[in-house]
Amino acid sequence: MSGSTVKTQKSPAQSSALAAAASLLDGQPEAALAQAETMLQRMPGFPAAEFLACQALRRMGKTAEALARLAALARTQPRVPAVLWELAQTASEAGDTGAAISALQNLTRLQPAVASGWFLLARELRKSGRDDEAWRTDLSGVHASAGDPELLNAAMAMNEGRLDDSSSALQARLKRQPEDPAACRLLGEVNWRRGDMTEALAWVERALEIAPGFDLARDFLIRLLLQNNRLPEALEHADLLGASPVKSPGHDLIKASVLVRLGQQDEAKEIYERLLAQQPNQPQVWQNLGHVLKTQGKQADAVHAYRQAVSHQPTMGEAWWSLANLKTVKLGPDDISSMTQALASLEQNEADRQEDIFHLHFSLGKALEDARDYAASFRHYDQGNRLRRGLIRHDADDFSAEAAATADTFTAAFVAGLGKGGCTDPDPIFIVGLPRSGSTLVEQILASHSQIEGTMELPEMMIIAGRLQSRLDDGEFPDFRTMIASLSPADRRRLGEEYLERTRVHRQTDKPRFIDKMPNNWQHVGLIRLILPNAKIIDARRHPVSCCFSGWKQHFARGQTFSYDLSDIGRYYNDYVGLMAAYDAAVPGAVHRVIYEDMVKDTERQVQRMLHYLDLPFEPACLEFYNNDRAVRTASSEQVRQPIFTDGIDHWKNYSEWLGPLVNALGPVVDSTTATS
């Protein structure tokens, strides 16, 4: 708080005496009071000495006496911020909320650019039940913080990548001002950029403890919770954000994103439709509505929504890709012309909009593929992939080494030596493999069974595996095998129970079994078997070149960093085949393999084999999976709402002359059909 001294004319001797007494305040308040009273005996009414006496009394716990004297001092010194600040703090400690509010209102009028006064005022307003005023007051404090030079410098350091400098400055500030929510939120972001999610969450939560009306901090917290898949907490905070007295469409949008993640598509749809009824020219909202409608199987409505998005913003690459990515929709010559113009405009004038540019390349690749212009199609797919590859991190060598270490760990002898353990609940059915391998078809077939609930691609197993990997990365164990061997039967049971508890939020029915269709879980089959020994695992597999090429020309919303280079995806497929072979050798029959081409040729037999593996009776509904109206969020959402068709099985051959890097990376598995287990 600026203006920390009472401004009266003082002689050098008086200034020296005051400074000496003030230095005693924190450690020896009684001595400070004695010196102040001595000065007041010589100079009755001397404001600086009276102020010092009041400060000492508060530190001694004599708040009633301090409050009475400060109130009198404030009447003679009504425009001295330090007096009002001390009066407010003393009144707050004495439980006199009214006096504290009055003092802080006067203080913030005098010093509107000093955030600490606003935040203290908001706390006092909450004590008196004036919640809306408190919320707005917190927002005034946030606004004041935006002009604070120290915070601006810390933010600049963070944005320039000097995270240590920013963190040091913020830590020093918080040591002086521990009740500074803006500094807490900013320190949370610094830790998030460092990759320390635990610290990031702690600091942002601290900011909201101090200033519950800090809407930007709550918005950031929701995004952090979404990244950690803590969906019920994210929804709770989204509801709180929606109650802000300062309304914003952004609050509705982030709640809708939480609802989508929770599988509550109808509620999200209502939000988007309400926002569009209020203001129809919002391309982002039209696009989001299209995503929900696609997931619900309302294809015609989804097409309308995506076309509305691109009509309002022709350069909106993701909306074009969303249209192109509807596998049963073909973009015509007019669309190709519009996308080509949009791409030229972006490349000439807005090269920083890389996401729009690579989305348009993928979209043109699909449109030209449908037009059978395969050479032009490949050029656009290639350019889109090259742009996307430059924006993500994927080290094929490191990944291959991790896959090899996992294969070397989960040998038959190692697994047998661990003995029994884990959570024995049989609920989960994991469908693993590469994207575009037919896993969504397998999921839709199984989710049509009366005893199986389809959910979505759940990240919980990857979160658990990532946490274990971090123990290795932090040097707690010398290698992967030692880390896995350290898990006791109780540890494994606890981890299995954690998985079931974390996934419970996605289960909307009372069906006894549920599907987790995260394809990347093939990397964690060994861990799954350790912590959930009775879970079932289905490996969905497709012809190597067909699967890899389909993945390469598919732009994924997130993850799948291996898929933007033909050599990378070929190596990834090799790693996958090698690790799954190691699992098969270690525990024969534990994983059931479904070959997509076999499923297409003889669906009924393959369905019977899967259900036999799952110890479930055959049900005809599994063959009529296309009548199941459940929400499907993957790229194959429209295809699985139709009977099986064979048109796409050999489609990759139209591009065979350009697939040399993929074929070379696949090596000996290039022609493998991988016999079923």
Task: Explain what the structure shows.
This protein is mainly alpha-helical and 677 residues long. Among the domains are: 12-111, Tetratricopeptide repeat domain (Serine Threonine Protein Phosphatase 5, Tetratricopeptide repeat, Alpha Horseshoe), CATH 1.25.40.10; 420-457 and 491-498 and 511-669, Rossmann fold (3-Layer(aba) Sandwich), CATH 3.40.50.300. Helix content is 63%, strand content 4%. It contains 34 helices and five strands. The chain has helices spanning 12-22, 29-42, 47-59, 63-76, 81-94, 97-110, 115-127, 131-145, 149-159, 163-176, 181-194, 197-210, 215-227, 231-242, 249-261, 265-278, 283-295, 299-312, 317-324, 333-349, 354-370, 374-389, 396-409, 412-418, 439-447, 460-473, 480-485, 489-503, 525-531, 544-552, 566-586, 596-601, 603-613, 660-666, and strands at 428-433, 452-456, 513-516, 536-541, 591-595. A five-stranded parallel sheet has the order 2-3-1-4-5, with helices on both faces. The longest helix is centred in the last third of the chain and has 21 residues, at 566-586. The radius of gyration is 32 Å and the shape is elongated.
CATH architecture of the domain at 420-457 and 491-498 and 511-669: 3-Layer(aba) Sandwich
Q: Which ranges are low-confidence, i.e. pLDDT below 50, for 5 or more consecutive residues?
A: 633-638
Number of helices: 34
CA(first)-CA(last) distance: 72 Å
| Portion of residues within helices | 55-70%
The biggest beta sheet is recorded as:
5 strands, parallel
Level-1 CATH class name of the domain at 420-457 and 491-498 and 511-669: Alpha Beta
Using only CA atoms, what is the Rg?
32 Å
Q: Kindly report the CATH topology of the domain at 420-457 and 491-498 and 511-669.
A: Rossmann fold
In percent, how much strand structure appears in the residues?
Answer: under 5%
CATH superfamily of the domain at 420-457 and 491-498 and 511-669: P-loop containing nucleotide triphosphate hydrolases
- Please identify the structural class as seen in this structure: mainly alpha
Categorize the overall geometry.
elongated
Number of strands: 5
Overall average pLDDT: 90
Give the strand line-up of the largest sheet: 2-3-1-4-5
